[in-house]
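Re-run with default settings, no changes from the original entry. Doing this only to confirm the output is reproducible before filing.
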Amino acid sequence: MEKQIKELLVERLFLDIEPDDIENNQPLSEYGVDSFLMLELVVALEEIFEVNFDPADISAEALKSVDSLAELIRSKQS
Protein backbone atom coordinates (compact mmCIF):
# COMPACT_ATOMS: atom_id res chain seq x y z
CA MET A 1 0.00 0.00 0.00
CA GLU A 2 2.80 2.44 0.87
CA LYS A 3 4.31 1.95 -2.60
CA GLN A 4 0.93 2.72 -4.21
CA ILE A 5 0.61 5.89 -2.12
CA LYS A 6 4.08 7.06 -3.18
CA GLU A 7 3.30 6.41 -6.85
CA LEU A 8 0.02 8.28 -6.47
CA LEU A 9 1.78 11.22 -4.82
CA VAL A 10 4.22 11.59 -7.71
CA GLU A 11 1.69 10.89 -10.47
CA ARG A 12 -1.30 12.91 -9.29
CA LEU A 13 0.57 15.80 -7.68
CA PHE A 14 3.22 16.07 -10.40
CA LEU A 15 6.06 15.92 -7.90
CA ASP A 16 9.50 16.18 -9.45
CA ILE A 17 10.92 13.16 -7.60
CA GLU A 18 10.86 9.39 -7.90
CA PRO A 19 8.40 7.43 -5.74
CA ASP A 20 11.31 5.49 -4.22
CA ASP A 21 12.83 8.78 -3.01
CA ILE A 22 9.88 9.40 -0.68
CA GLU A 23 10.52 8.24 2.88
CA ASN A 24 7.49 6.62 4.56
CA ASN A 25 7.81 8.61 7.79
CA GLN A 26 8.94 11.94 6.30
CA PRO A 27 6.42 14.81 6.43
CA LEU A 28 4.86 15.25 3.00
CA SER A 29 5.35 19.01 3.33
CA GLU A 30 9.07 18.38 2.84
CA TYR A 31 8.27 17.19 -0.68
CA GLY A 32 6.31 20.33 -1.50
CA VAL A 33 2.85 18.98 -0.70
CA ASP A 34 0.69 21.87 0.51
CA SER A 35 -2.95 21.93 1.63
CA PHE A 36 -4.26 22.35 -1.93
CA LEU A 37 -2.27 19.36 -3.18
CA MET A 38 -3.33 17.37 -0.14
CA LEU A 39 -6.98 17.87 -1.10
CA GLU A 40 -6.20 16.45 -4.54
CA LEU A 41 -4.45 13.53 -2.89
CA VAL A 42 -7.38 12.76 -0.56
CA VAL A 43 -9.73 12.56 -3.55
CA ALA A 44 -7.31 10.28 -5.39
CA LEU A 45 -6.85 8.03 -2.34
CA GLU A 46 -10.60 7.63 -1.95
CA GLU A 47 -10.88 6.70 -5.61
CA ILE A 48 -7.95 4.27 -5.78
CA PHE A 49 -8.46 2.53 -2.44
CA GLU A 50 -12.28 2.66 -2.57
CA VAL A 51 -12.67 4.30 0.82
CA ASN A 52 -14.59 7.35 2.03
CA PHE A 53 -13.02 9.71 4.50
CA ASP A 54 -15.19 11.58 6.97
CA PRO A 55 -14.31 15.21 7.71
CA ALA A 56 -13.11 14.02 11.13
CA ASP A 57 -10.58 11.73 9.40
CA ILE A 58 -8.90 14.63 7.65
CA SER A 59 -6.42 15.89 10.22
CA ALA A 60 -2.89 17.20 9.96
CA GLU A 61 -1.63 14.12 11.79
CA ALA A 62 -3.46 11.66 9.51
CA LEU A 63 -2.19 13.40 6.39
CA LYS A 64 1.34 13.94 7.63
CA SER A 65 3.25 11.11 5.93
CA VAL A 66 2.97 8.02 3.76
CA ASP A 67 2.85 5.91 6.93
CA SER A 68 0.01 7.92 8.46
CA LEU A 69 -1.95 7.87 5.19
CA ALA A 70 -1.58 4.08 4.94
CA GLU A 71 -2.76 3.71 8.54
CA LEU A 72 -5.81 5.88 7.83
CA ILE A 73 -6.68 3.91 4.69
CA ARG A 74 -6.32 0.58 6.48
CA SER A 75 -8.61 1.80 9.26
CA LYS A 76 -11.28 2.69 6.70
CA GLN A 77 -10.96 -0.63 4.87
CA SER A 78 -11.55 -2.79 7.94
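The domain at 2-77 is CATH 1.10.1200.10 (Non-ribosomal Peptide Synthetase Peptidyl Carrier Protein; Chain A). The chain is about 50% helix and 0% strand.
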